[in-house]
Amino acid sequence: VAKNQGGNRYACYRPTDSQSALQAFQIEKALRQALDQNELQLFLQSQCDQHGVLAGAEALVRWQHPEQGLISPALFIPVAERSDLIIALDNWVLARAGELLANWRSRGLNYTLSVNISPRHVRHASFVEDVKAVLARYQFAPAALVLEVTEGILVDDLQASIDKMLQLTALGISFAIDDFGTGYSSLSYIRNLPVQELKIDQSFIKGIPDQANDIAMVETIIAVARQLNLRVVAEGVETAAQALFCQQQGLWSQGYHIDKPLPVSKWQARWLDRVTATDS
Ligand code: C2E
Ligand code: MG
Ligand code: MG
Ligand code: MG
């Protein structure tokens, strides 16, 4: 149905619109088919370490719709999260990520790959087994996989989430808190979570280096992270000044200043094949 209506139906969707329940249902139905028909596509966005050297990438999903073109995850992830469809979607991304990590490992490359996991998936009974199954199937180095979760996992049954995270960190897999600073605004919860990385939300990076408030926020987050021995990644690094700030503060950075998200093949051609070629 949604397909026949054409136009910008999907682009108009807002999760908060009260009349949009039917639309969300239609998107959900189309997305279910998209998963089956291989219309999802994996993009990678580079992450550089504190020396400005490539350290890894984040996997970001896109929907290559036959009529609508490339659809942003900001539009369809919230719909997928209304049902267990998000579990299938996350697992599709996890499998692609496992496959990539195994390939990199066979080429002697030990970059990290970060995968976004919905809070709903963390709460789902299959979460730990889903991740273990991908690890068993693709045999990549567990230390290379970073699972990004948001403060949404704190909402209910926190202890159950922590227990699951501990089962996976025991295998060597890492966790990152994504969009850090935008959620529950209490720094203290972080010490109770088995995470190895904080990703500072791009809204704080925007004001660097001009806004004193943003600098204060970022420096506070860095101080806490240091105390807890966590890696810090700055998201939304768009300018040379922001990149310099990150390097001076010892942060990893990710953002348009380094590169935009690219389809896997383009990303590999730009970031890996070049490196491999000059190394040999
Ligand atoms: P996120 O995980 O916080 O991803 C960062 C978002 O910031 C990405 O948007 C990325 O394209 C964008 N970005 C990167 N660099 C810059 C920059 O320099 N400036 C600005 N303004 N933006 C930048 P994207 O790809 O549209 O993803 C949006 C969100 O959708 C993600 O936020 C994540 O929460 C969710 N998402 C994406 N892929 C997946 C997935 O495979 N599974 C799940 N569960 N969620 C996903
Ligand atoms: Mg993320
Ligand atoms: Mg983020
Ligand atoms: Mg986000």
UniProtKB/TrEMBL annotation:
Q: Which UniProt keywords apply?
A: Kinase, Membrane, Transferase, Transmembrane, Transmembrane helix
Q: Which residues form the EAL domain?
A: 24-275
Q: Which domain of life is it from?
A: Bacteria
Q: Name one GO biological process term.
A: signal transduction
Query: GO CC terms on record?
Result: membrane
Give the GO molecular function terms: kinase activity
Keyword set includes Membrane: yes
| Name under which the protein is recorded | Two-component sensor histidine kinase
